[in-house]
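At this stage, I needed to go through a protein sequence along with its fold in token form, as given directly below:
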Amino acid sequence: GRLWGGTSHCFVVTTRWGLQVHAGRQVLRQYAAAAAATPSTASPQGERKKMNLFTAINDALRIALETDANACVFGEDVGFGGVFRCTVGLQEQFGDQRVFNTPLCEQGIAGFAVGMAAVGATAIAEIQFADYIFPAFDQIVNEAAKYRYRSGNQYDCGGLTIRSPCGAVGHGGHYHSQSPEAYFAHTPGLKIVMPRTPVQAKGLLLASIRDPNPVLFMEPKALYRAAVEDVPVGDYTLPLGVGQIVQEGSDVTLVGWGAQVNVLMNASEMAAELGISCEVIDLCTILPWDRDLVANSVRKTGRLVISHEAPKTSGFAAEVAATIQNCCFLSLEAPIQRVCGYDTPFPLIFEKYYVPNAYKNLEAIKSVMEA
């Protein structure tokens, strides 16, 4: 369905929308091992091809451009493949009027995208790193998100999707490692998606592009080349707002999204050696998130641990914890635990101490079991 998003006074583009604008290796190895061990648990049928996460995204963009003549892809360096190669080959196939570079101006990229979507285009914008999305914050939360609401449903920019790599990568420091999903989850009118596997990445990206609401599609860059999966070669979508039980269990529910799900899988394996059965849930979509899936799991296990890379204070784990505390109070056997990044800027040389790794999650698991 449609979210109530509002209007914008920023009609950046009212001319032809196709006009080009001229205005830790160790961490990666850990992610790769976990990703290879935890493939998608549900995926479409049909002919398949081996893809990693970035090639699955590239394939989804190709299909979007093939099936929608109004679609275009733009952002910093996307014309020659992008810094992570997610758009490689697209300009050669579809031309520089549909796949093109922009100036190094995130606010301009977002404003341009809002204007394009407002006049009927399918705008697929890329913010090169999620850490640099903040100059575009006003355009996203005050313009894109409120466009439909502010116009009384007369206009919308639902054809807008903003892709952005996010999260820890082992050597990114404080400007190439952040996970800003919680900032945007406070905004009615947006949807926020974060895939974990190649099958998810392709299906969720196509669903995001075709959703009648503006969508932020956050891509954990540590997973771009972490694992290969058999991905359907055809056109398919996966539903937004629907989580996934990656592993069933009976003693404690572990909830995460993106790369952190693989960390939780590692923690669950260590817990299993102690005789603790963990149910692992991948939210897949942050906004709207699958409350019923998590609540039903917690009613079964009686315990909940939520983990994400972003700082703990006001992180999205707090929203999950508050909701589950309210609807599952009589089922809880222990206080809900949050295992998150520290309330500091993201460090460089101390990243391995900052990230909520499997050992920190194991301690939280033992804590709820002993409560």
